[in-house]
Structure formats: structure tokens, C-alpha cells
């Protein structure tokens, strides 16, 4: 490992859709780098594809860095307490959840997502232009979908949006606000589970309540509440931000949008390419290592908190030819935006479906869509663990 002074992390993108300058330098010269977190703690940043893929695939290491002695992301502690910790039952929980994210289930869910997207476009058009695509369309759609999956009444959607923001905050909210939001959401979900237990519906939560696993066991209440939290955290803010970033990428050079208009069959590969190309992917994944690990880029010693920059890995020139180019027909596309191995994103099929529906509906309904400001003026989200854009002003 090349020795160098610790650098402040997270790294800032050059602009809305351009990667930090340091990524390429770190991949080439210091793929295992010392970084200083907002908390003041130090960690190790990985930027190469092969290193990150190997560590993510290693079943010995947990998804989060909440173990005692691990570096803290910030002085707030919501990163650990907001994420469900199901312990030894994690894989059992994943197996029970998987049936809700199969290709067959997505085919059933897709028309409902399309109807939601159509409604949001109608409302955005009615409000007039220019419009903020993120606020009017990208922000509400994923939380509507999550609420639909959990059987949550429509009138509670706004509360879910607020809870999602607080859970992913690094500096936007105070500790008191974070604690209050967690308490509110836990109490809400506990009550919601009780309602579903008494009157099950056709939603995911009702299914988990009434269906035993292969061993004949049912999920306990705390696991059901944790499921609600986990789906919201994983499925709302990240997809909201990806919708905004995807549209900014495709409209920054409008030839990409024109390419999709001319060949809508490219929607699926275009979604995968924008996931790979995303230069504002957020904080990254963390791993706390309780034993030494040999990686192609160097050795990580026991006690290290590793930060895995998926955005940098997806720009690794040794894996992706012309990695700095947005190629909507790129195939194969082995990006690792959803992770790999035992802790890969269980809801990735849902995220892909939502992003595909977004493109299909907007291409059909608003073919003249364009950015209302230069891409360099799109303001990035600050103070959250997931990267994104505060606004995406558009006209049509």
C-alpha cells in the first residue's frame, strides 16, 4: 500500500455527473488509501473493482461497520440503529423476502408502478413548466411503491418520506431529530404489523406475518418491524436519487435521449449503464474486518474499517472499456452498483423495474423533455449517505 496522508472523505464530485478527480489517481497509485471520516475517525478506502468485488463477496464480513471498534461515519449513530440487524436469521429473512422480488412478481407489479408514474406525470404537467423532476416525480414514486408493498395507506406516504430522509442523514438533522424519527417509525410499524396480523391483505408484510419458513417458524414482531424499516431505507432515497441522476445523465447530452426515442428497446441496457456511470453514488459500503485480508491492491489488517467506493469501481478502466463514456448499449455490463455476494441488494429487481418504468413513461409522455438549466448548475444533495441531486429542473 502506498503511504500518503489521510484524505477527507467523502470525496466531492467535480460536478453533478462527473466523478471526483481523486478516483482515477487512487485507482492507479493508491487503491488502498487512508481517509478521514466526518466523525474524525480514520478508515481505509478501496477504489478498484477487483478489490471491492472480492471483499463484498467474502461471507466472513458483515454488511455494516457497527461492530465495536469500527470507525464511525459521523457523530450521529443512526447508521447503526436505523438498519435492521436480524443476526443469524438474516439469510432466513432474505429467503422469505426473495419471492417478492422475482421476475414473475415484478411483471405483476409493473402495471401498478406504471399507473403511479402516469399519475405523477399528469400532476407535474398540470402544475406547469419548468418543473422539478425530482420533487414532482422522482421523490414520490419510490415511496409510493414501498408503501404499496407494505400495505401502508396512501395518506401516510409523506411520513415515510420524512423518516427515510432522517435515517440516511449524516449532517442534515440533529441527533434529537434522528432519534425522534426512529421512535416514530418504530411505533408506527409496530402498530401497522398489529393491524396486518388482525386483517391480512395481499401485501408483502401480510405475507411475512402469515407464512412460515421452511422450518415452520414465523418471523417475530421485531423482524417484521425491521423489514419495514429496511425496505424504506433501501428502497426510497436511493431510488429517488437514482431517478434524478439518471435523467440528468441522459439529458446533459441530449443525443442520449434522442437515441432512446429512436430505439426504446435500449431502455434496459440504458438503465444498467446509468447505474454503472453514476459518479455521485454516495458514501459507499462499509466493512469491519476482524481478521487480515489479502486483496490484489494490498493487505487489510484486522481492525480495519474498509469503505468500498462502488462508484469508483464502476469506472475502473481495467474492467469497463471506455469507462468514462456513457454507452447506452453497453453489454455485458458487470457493474456492482447493487453489490455482490450474500449481502447484495435484495430489492435490486424492484429498483431496476422502477427505473425502466420511469424511462418508458417519460419517453412516451414527454419526448421533448430537456434540462431547464445547464447540467453544471444542478445542485448535489449534501448531508446524506446516498448521493443525488437536490433538484432536476426540466421543461418539455
From TrEMBL:
Keywords: Heme, Iron, Metal-binding, Monooxygenase, Oxidoreductase. InterPro entries: Cyt_P450, Cyt_P450_B, Cyt_P450_CS, Cyt_P450_sf. Gene3D superfamilies: Cytochrome P450. Pfam families: p450. It comes from the Bacteria. GO terms for molecular function: heme binding; iron ion binding; monooxygenase activity; oxidoreductase activity, acting on paired donors, with incorporation or reduction of molecular oxygen. Belongs to the cytochrome P450 family. PANTHER family: CYTOCHROME P450 YJIB-RELATED, P450, PUTATIVE (EUROFUNG)-RELATED. This is Cytochrome P450. It comes from Kribbella antibiotica. The lineage of its organism: Bacteria, Bacillati, Actinomycetota, Actinomycetes, Propionibacteriales.
Amino acid at each position: 500500500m502506498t503511504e500518503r496522508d489521510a484524505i477527507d472523505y467523502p470525496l466531492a464530485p467535480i460536478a453533478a455527473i462527473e466523478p471526483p478527480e481523486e478516483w482515477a489517481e487512487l485507482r492507479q497509485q493508491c487503491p488502498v488509501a487512508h481517509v478521514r471520516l466526518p466523525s474524525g475517525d480514520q478508515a481505509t478506502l478501496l477504489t478498484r473493482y477487483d478489490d471491492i468485488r472480492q471483499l463484498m463477496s467474502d461471507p466472513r464480513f458483515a454488511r455494516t461497520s457497527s461492530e465495536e471498534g469500527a470507525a464511525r461515519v459521523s457523530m450521529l449513530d443512526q447508521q447503526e440503529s436505523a438498519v435492521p440487524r436480524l443476526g443469524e436469521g438474516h439469510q432466513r429473512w432474505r429467503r422469505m423476502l426473495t419471492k417478492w422480488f422475482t421476475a414473475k412478481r415484478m411483471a405483476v407489479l409493473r402495471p401498478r408502478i406504471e399507473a403511479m408514474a402516469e399519475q405523477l406525470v399528469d400532476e407535474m404537467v398540470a402544475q406547469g413548466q419548468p418543473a422539478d423532476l425530482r420533487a414532482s416525480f422522482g421523490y414520490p414514486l419510490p415511496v409510493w411503491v414501498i408503501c404499496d408493498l407494505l400495505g401502508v395507506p396512501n395518506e401516510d406516504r409523506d411520513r415515510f418520506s420524512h423518516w427515510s430522509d432522517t435515517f440516511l442523514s449524516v449532517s442534515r438533522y440533529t441527533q434529537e431529530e434522528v432519534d425522534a424519527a426512529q421512535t416514530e417509525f418504530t411505533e408506527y410499524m409496530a402498530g401497522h404489523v398489529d393491524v396486518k396480523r388482525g386483517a391480512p391483505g395481499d401485501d408483502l408484510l401480510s405475507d411475512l406475518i402469515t407464512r412460515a419458513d421452511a422450518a415452520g417458524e414465523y418471523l417475530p414482531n421485531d423482524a417484521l418491524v425491521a423489514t419495514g424499516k429496511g425496505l424504506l431505507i433501501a428502497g426510497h432515497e436511493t431510488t429517488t436519487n437514482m431517478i434524478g441522476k439518471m435523467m440528468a445523465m441522459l439529458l446533459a447530452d441530449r443525443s442520449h435521449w434522442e437515441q432512446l426515442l429512436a430505439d426504446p428497446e435500449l431502455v434496459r441496457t440504458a438503465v444498467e449503464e446509468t447505474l454503472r456511470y453514476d459518479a455521485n453514488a454516495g458514501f459507499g459500503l462499509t466493512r469491519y474486518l476482524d481478521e487480515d485480508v489479502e486483496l490484489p491492491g494490498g493487505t487489510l489488517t484486522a481492525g480495519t474499517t474498509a469503505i468500498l467506493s462502488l462508484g469508483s469501481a464502476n469506472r475502473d478502466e481495467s474492467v469497463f472499456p471506455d469507462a468514462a463514456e456513457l454507452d447506452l448499449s453497453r453489454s455485458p455490463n458487470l457493474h456492482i452498483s447493487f453489490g455482490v455476494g450474500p449481502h447484495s441488494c435484495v430489492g435490486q429487481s424492484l429498483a431496476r423495474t422502477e427505473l425502466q418504468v420511469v424511462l418508458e413513461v417519460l419517453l412516451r409522455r414527454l419526448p421533448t423533455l430537456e434540462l431547464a438549466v445547464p447540467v453544471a448548475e444542478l445542485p448535489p444533495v449534501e448531508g446524506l449517505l446516498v448521493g443525488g441531486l437536490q433538484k432536476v429542473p426540466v421543461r418539455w
